[in-house]
Amino acid sequence: MTRPVLHDYFRSSAAYRVRIALNLKGIDYESRPVDLREGEQKSMAYRSLNPQGFVPMLEIDDRRLTQSLAIIVYLDQHHPEPPLMPADPVDQAHVRALALTIACDIHPLNNLRVLKYLGGSLGIEEEQRDAWYRHWVSEGFAALEGLAGRRSGSFLFGNNPTLADVCLVPQMYNARRFDVPLDAFPTLVRADASANALAAFADAHPDRHEVQ
Ligand SMILES: N[C@@H](CCC(=O)N[C@@H](CS)C(=O)NCC(=O)O)C(=O)O
C-alpha cells in the first residue's frame, strides 16, 4: 500500500480523531500540515483537493477521503483489527450515538470558523466567545455522561476503545484548553485517562504534531 497522506492540523480535533484511528490500526502515514492559523485551508491549492476547505483529508488507496467519521469508518472496514465498533447492532447504535453526540452536537458549534465568525463578523468579545464554548461543551458533556452511564467501563463503552473514545479524547483536550470544569463528568474523565494510557492515543496528541 502507498503510504497514506493525512492533511492535518495539530489542534484540529477532527484531524486528531483520524490520527488516533490510524495509530490504533497500526497504519503508517505521512502527516502533511495545513496551517489553519494562516488560512491555508482556504487556498485554491487545498480547495482543489478538498472543496470543503476542512481538515482532515486522507489520501489512501488512490482516493481522497474527507469527513473524519467517514474516514474512520472506512479505516475500520478495510483494516478490521482492532475493531472500533462492537459486534452487536444494538451496541453499535449506542457507540454511534456516543460518537455523534460529540461529532454532530458539540464540535460544530465550537470549531474555528464558528468562533471566528462570532469574534469577527458579529464582534463578540473573547470572554463571551469562551463562555459560548464552555456552555455548549458542558451541555454536550452532560448528555454524554448520562448516555454512557452504566454501559461504560474503563472506556466510554465497555473496556476497549471504540469510535466513541476516538471522538472523546480530542474533545476533552479542547475542553481543557478552554478551562471547562470536568468534575461533573467522571465517566468521561475515566475513559479519557484510559485512552491516553495507550500509545495510539498518546502519539496522536497535538503536542506531538505541532506546526512550528
Ligand atoms: N465534520 C468535519 C469537521 C471538520 C472541521 O471542522 N475541521 C476544522 C478543524 S477541526 C477545519 O478544518 N476548519 C477550518 C476552518 O474553520 O476554516 C469532520 O468531522 O471532518
Report strand order across the widest sheet. 2-1-3-4
Order of helix and strand elements from N to C terminus:
EHEHEEHHHHHHH
- State the major sheet: 4 strands, mixed
Count the beta strands.
4
Please report the number of helical segments: 9
Mean pLDDT: 97
What does this structure look like?
- By secondary structure, this protein is of the alpha+beta class.
- It has 9 helices and 4 strands.
- Helix 4 runs antiparallel to helix 6 (126-148).
- The two termini are 30 Å apart.
- Glutathione binds next to helix 1, helix 3 and helix 5.
Can you tag this structure with a few keywords?
212 residues; alpha+beta; 4-stranded mixed sheet; 8% strand; 53% helix; globular; binds glutathione
